[in-house]
Specification:
Number of domains: 2
Strand content: 35-45%
Largest sheet: 3 strands, antiparallel
Shape: elongated
Number of strands: 7
Length: 175
Amino acid sequence: DYRINNRSSLSDFDISFEREFGECDELRRQELGCYFTAAHWGSGWVFDKTKFNPISYSNFKPNYDVLYEAPVSETGVTDFEMGVKLNYRARFGTVLPSALFSVYGSAGSSTNSSTVKQRIRIDWNHPLFEAEAHVTLQSLSNNDLCLDVYGENGDKTVAGGSVNGWSCHGSWNQV
């Protein structure tokens, strides 16, 4: 089971997924506190290795959808920064021998994290963000053919030019 922590604000979207698993639950067994006793000839493992199995994370796929709304009159560019942070921890155990038995318990942990960030730039002047309905046309005979507008008499700045099929190159005069 995972707990979802939502620390979002008006300008930041910040959620995290944490596995709900207490430190004492990781021990092989538990007595009155966060420890257990065993004979000196015990196996020596403080933590239950079966609880640290990658299978418990194999089907965990955190995902979310974010919708941003901008006014139709928005122009210029907007930069978004998206990131993923992974926190991980190494557990340490201790075995304290006594006259009759050994006491097994947790001896702390070491944590670290890794962050990956990606910057996304939105160009609001791109035709994709115009306030009109877009039409997608697909050629059945050519995979790489787009509609291309040349302009009047070869001048691309003049309206009213012819529309032809042309190899797709991603310029603003193509659909």
